[in-house]
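Quick one: Glucose-1-phosphate thymidylyltransferase from Maridesulfovibrio ferrireducens, structure tokens please.
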Amino acid sequence: MDNFTDLKNSRFDILKRLLRTIVCMVAFELVRLLLQAVVLFQYAYLLILGKSSAPLRRFGNRLSTYTYQLLRYATLNDNMKPFPFSDLPETTRCEPSVSRIDFS
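--- reply ---
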């Protein structure tokens, strides 16, 4: 009887994770669109002013880290719940941006 209860709880936990994963995949699609807008805006900024926007680069870096967290959770490679189930990644958890952009 204990095995049946464990199996039932296990399936319930699997369904909860599946629902969280579906929310994460919807968030991934929204973030994907936002990242595309960031990339296009960054290049427009670069073409017009001749330099990149540092705040936009930091924001893009945070979004990239968040996307990575979403995908790791959805593919069952991480148990840490991403935003909206936890906080957004801090800038200290992101890899630092390159100091010089190479256009070659």
